[in-house]
Amino acid sequence: MKGGEKKNYDVIIVGGGPGGLTAGLYASRARLGTLLIESALFGGQMTTTELVENYPGFPEGVTGDELSRLMEEQAKKFGMETVTQEVVKVSLEGDAKVVQTYESTYRCEALIISTGTEYRKLGVPGEKEFAGKGVSYCATCDGAFFRDSQIVVVGGGDSALTEALFLTKFAKELTIIHRRDALRGTKIYQERALANPKIKFLWNSIVQEIKGDSMVRSIIVKNVKTGEINELKTEGAFLFVGLVPRTQFLKGVVQMDEGGYILTNEHCETSAKGIYAVGDCRKKLLRQIATAVGDGATAAFAAEKFLELKE
Ligand SMILES: Cc1cc2nc3c(=O)[nH]c(=O)nc-3n(C[C@H](O)[C@H](O)[C@H](O)COP(=O)(O)OP(=O)(O)OC[C@H]3O[C@@H](n4cnc5c(N)ncnc54)[C@H](O)[C@@H]3O)c2cc1C
Q: What is the pTM of this model?
């Protein structure tokens, strides 16, 4: 399709993580003309998760890659179309929703947003400069480059703990740097991290700078209680200090909270008629694969009912 050309669908889904893939499965199985637009990999954040232990149906756990592959295969089985493009703008033309990517423009009656979140940046000197040269936001992607290394993980939540535990497969020694004096992740991950002999903790500490030459060599850390500043030798810095929703392109189209999470009701309906939000990008209590999947099914069903009423 050429730049300005518009193609019509009943339903367009933006984002192909577990939420989007489930919405796609339900919508295409309901015989709705469905397009899923994904900017990177089908599976979303699951593709960067080594082992998923809490998704029902897999008592031994399942790798994120395998779960992604299975969900993609199942979603595509019922005729859902897909494109690999990034959505940059959504606008309304009467009842129709116009979805723009860099390459094309699409129209639909019902739009499901499932763009998830991305890692918050620390915003310290050296972070940008050493990204891919020792600074990483993905243990599954980059862990193997740090075999027998001394590395740090920054953060104290679930992502930091699961990624740190995974990284102990490669690293010689790993220090978790956390700004508080206690972890805030799920108990089972806390127990595993605290019991792991390769993991050390640096409490009440924040990173002020990442330093190096062609690669990361050290980080400057400040103790927030005492004000003491230290330079710590390290070969890698894995940063997991929270997530931000990928909803910038929807500003002014649907209501969001102050953090950019989309506000919905229990049917995943947003403030704009015919636009739904599912998974991690919406304001909700628990951001997990199981809840994203539930949202995807709900939104696709709600969209189907919405389209029926329009006829
Ligand atoms: C390290 C880590 C470990 C985790 N471990 C677990 C676990 O063990 N169990 C569990 O249940 N959950 C786990 N989670 C959480 C789980 O991965 C998420 O809750 C889930 O993936 C959310 O699904 P989603 O569909 O909402 O979004 P995502 O999986 O984030 O997918 C969103 C997709 O949208 C795409 N996208 C974004 N913007 C655009 C755009 N503008 N145009 C087109 N495409 C776009 C992205 O490329 C991405 O593929 C983990 C998360 C992390 C980070």
A: 0.89
